[in-house]
Amino acid sequence: MVDPLPRFPDGFLFGCSTASYQIEGAVTEDGRGPSIWDTFSHTDGKTLNGDTGDVACDHYHRYPEDVALLADLGVGAYRFSIAWPRVQPTGSGVPSRTGLDFYDRLVDALLEKGVVPVPTLFHWDLPQALEDKGGWLTRDTASYFSDYTSHVVTRLGDRVRRWITLNEPVVHMAQGYAYGTHAPGRTLMLDALPVAHHQLLGHGLAARALRAAGAAEVMITNNCTPVWPAGEDAGDVTAAAMYDAFHNRLFNDPVLLGSYPDFLAAALGDLVREGDLEVISTPLDALGINYYNPTQVGAPAEGSPLPFDPQQIEGYPTTAFGWPVVPSGLTDLLTGLRETYGDALPPIHITENGCSTAAGVQDQFRIDYLDAHLRAVHDAITAGVDVRGYFVWSLLDNFEWAEGYSQRFGLVEVDFETLSRTPRESYRWLRSALEAQAASPR
């Protein structure tokens, strides 16, 4: 039996998160164009078992059922992403009316059930036509992203007030362009750095487009991790600082401070034009943080193409994905952000946190995981960090990128043969926890 959660502040927003390519399916309906993930997942050897998102959870057709699950769960918000190639099949030009119609229907269904829609404009499914022009390696993609944002907010902005521009630009840069384990599958290592700047420039331009359309809240979601040196020697400590700069500061500093860490600014060189950092640091209303685990880093081996060596963390339980479970790392991350950025740090929403477990509806491991991480958030709030929301990853089992359908993150189990949804015990636990929050003295 898990003890009741501590009382969260009035107005604290509890929600669930998903992403378009991971759940929507319907990849050729209503004129949707191909994305880099369509191309990547249909390339031999790129995903486990050759799995694709062609059908995924079929959320495109079954969204009323999924909205009903959200309402029954009792969360106040739903973070989903909009598929850029569903809105603009080639990434530019006149938007697809039928593509936007789907998100119209979804937003209306959420509002009818009292669930706040929180769209993410880019969660890695870049239109393939833009990748063919260079993708995020090229500056033009930032402008295309701004234009796409304007089309979406023009259609949905009368009902959607909270927006997220990008999801985890560090992961898209590293896995997609540096290591090649995600779409588009490029293996550029440190030569992928332009992807960081162009994504951030796209974020800043999109933030200004959202502001111009009257958006009430604009965010970016960064994946952040506490970085632990593997040892006390100078090589490990230096490598950890380098990893922190690449993973965390590269994406937080320019947004919050208007500058890159010195050595990264030098590496980016002429890519950063006059006025870029002013655009990138367009003020935010909140910062989205995705947390899963700390990262342990040692000095790189001689001849390594990278200045750090991420290592396995021992001594902690692990998820089905093999990720260490360290709830205190979330408290440390949040208090560390407050110490680093001070008054420049806006309010924070934990926009993803969750774990993969074995199939089945009995998932005490997930209950314990969520309970511990929610307590970690509460500890950070008690320590003075302004955290205003927590979104579970994820509502549904889904297409887990290169891991296909092997990793199950959902509060709701999905049978990928029949597409039936079955709430897990963690779903029931969270519903009871939210009911208790609502009933506790204020």
UniProtKB/TrEMBL annotation:
Keywords: Carbohydrate metabolism, Cellulose degradation, Glycosidase, Hydrolase, Polysaccharide degradation. The keyword Hydrolase applies. It comes from Paractinoplanes pyxinae. It comes from the Bacteria. One of its GO terms (molecular function) is beta-glucosidase activity. Belongs to the glycosyl hydrolase 1 family. This is Beta-glucosidase. SUPFAM superfamilies: (Trans)glycosidases. The lineage of its organism: Bacteria, Bacillati, Actinomycetota, Actinomycetes, Micromonosporales. Pfam families: Glyco_hydro_1. It is an enzyme of class 3 (hydrolase).
